[in-house]
């Protein structure tokens, strides 16, 4: 067979879409134990992952359990570092992702081009999803809906600090532009905030806000509560005699 005929056959295969280089959808093949449980249907919600204390290492898990996540690019800047061969410049992207129903995350990615940096930031954000405890705890409001946070919380990142307080319905989100975008993607509608430090730094402001929202899940129980639990359990237990 002449080489001209083989080239014609390869070109016909490429036109027909039967070549080996055709774009086929990549099926997810989970590698971790958590990913296998999600793919098999044993885990169907993020609450099961949080209660089990499992760590998300595959972004496809979030694509399966939270398909309605929204993303927003907050900043794309250039960074430089000195190497033995001179200065190396990269692009850094800061992306915030949220479901507007109590889930929020922030991701940072670096690459030579802006597009690759944004894709890396999205992949990084999917591995750090945080659940936000929503509620109505303002003394001026007693509607009982999930429009604000359950209590006052504070977050910090470097020199940037933010304090988030519950607010009644109709107040809206009283915050700067960066923190407001994060709170909106988290599903918060009414809240008061107080920020200190270098709030112009977008990355530190986003990290401080997400840190404050993650602390809503950390509620310490008092010593009296622990003692009452022990006494009640000892009374409920049957006597050995």
Describe the protein's architecture and organization.
The protein has 241 residues and is an alpha+beta fold. Among the domains are: 31-65, no CATH class; 134-217, Ribosomal Protein S5, domain 2 (2-Layer Sandwich), CATH 3.30.230. The chain contains 8 helices and 10 strands. The protein has helices at residues 3-16, 33-40, 46-52, 59-65, 114-126, 177-186, 202-214, 223-236; strands at 70-83, 86-98, 103-111, 130-131, 134-135, 148-149, 153-157, 160-166, 173-174, 191-196. The strands form 3 sheets. The chain has a 4-stranded antiparallel beta sheet with strand order 1-2-3-4. Helix 4 packs across helix 5 (114-126). The termini are far apart. The model is unreliable at 1-25 and 225-230 (pLDDT under 50).
Secondary structure layout plus pairing:
Layout: H1 3-16, H2 33-40, H3 46-52, H4 59-65, E1 70-83, E2 86-98, E3 103-111, H5 114-126, E4 130-131, E5 134-135, E6 148-149, E7 153-157, E8 160-166, E9 173-174, H6 177-186, E10 191-196, H7 202-214, H8 223-236
Parallel strand pairs: 9-10
Antiparallel strand pairs: 1-2, 2-3, 3-4, 5-6, 7-8, 8-10
Global structural class = alpha+beta
> Strand tally, please?
10
CATH architecture of the domain at 134-217: 2-Layer Sandwich
Q: Strand order of the main beta sheet, please?
A: 1-2-3-4
Tally of alpha and pi helices: 8
User: What top-tier CATH class of the domain at 134-217 fits best?
Assistant: Alpha Beta
Our Rg estimate from Cα atoms comes to 25 Å
Low-pLDDT stretches: 1-25, 225-230
Strand content: 25-35%
Dominant shape: flat
What is the CATH topology classification name of the domain at 134-217? Answer: Ribosomal Protein S5, domain 2
Mean pLDDT: 84
């Amino acid at each position: 067979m002449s080489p001209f005929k083989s080239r014609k056959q390869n070109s016909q295969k490429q036109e027909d879409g039967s070549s080996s280089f055709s774009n086929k959808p990549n099926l997810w093949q989970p590698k971790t134990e958590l990913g296998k449980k999600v793919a098999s249907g044993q885990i169907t919600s993020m609450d099961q992952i949080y209660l089990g204390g499992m760590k998300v290492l595959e972004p496809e898990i979030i694509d399966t359990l939270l398909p309605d996540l929204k993303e927003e690019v907050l900043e794309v800047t250039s960074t430089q570092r000195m190497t033995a061969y001179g200065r190396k410049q990269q692009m850094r992207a800061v992306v915030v992702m949220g479901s507007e129903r109590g889930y929020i995350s922030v991701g940072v990615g670096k690459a030579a081009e802006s597009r690759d940096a944004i894709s890396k930031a999205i992949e990084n954000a999917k591995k750090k999803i945080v659940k936000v405890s929503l509620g109505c705890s303002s003394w001026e409001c007693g509607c009982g809906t999930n429009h604000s946070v359950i209590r006052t919380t504070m977050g910090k990142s470097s020199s940037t600090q933010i304090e988030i307080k519950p607010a009644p319905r109709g107040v809206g989100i009283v915050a700067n532009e960066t923190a407001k975008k994060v709170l909106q993607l988290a599903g918060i509608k009414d809240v008061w905030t107080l920020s200190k430090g270098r709030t112009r730094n977008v990355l530190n402001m986003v990290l401080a806000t997400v840190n404050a929202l993650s602390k809503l899940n950390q509620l310490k129980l008092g010593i009296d509560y622990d003692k009452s639990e022990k006494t009640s359990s000892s009374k409920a237990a049957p006597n050995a005699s």
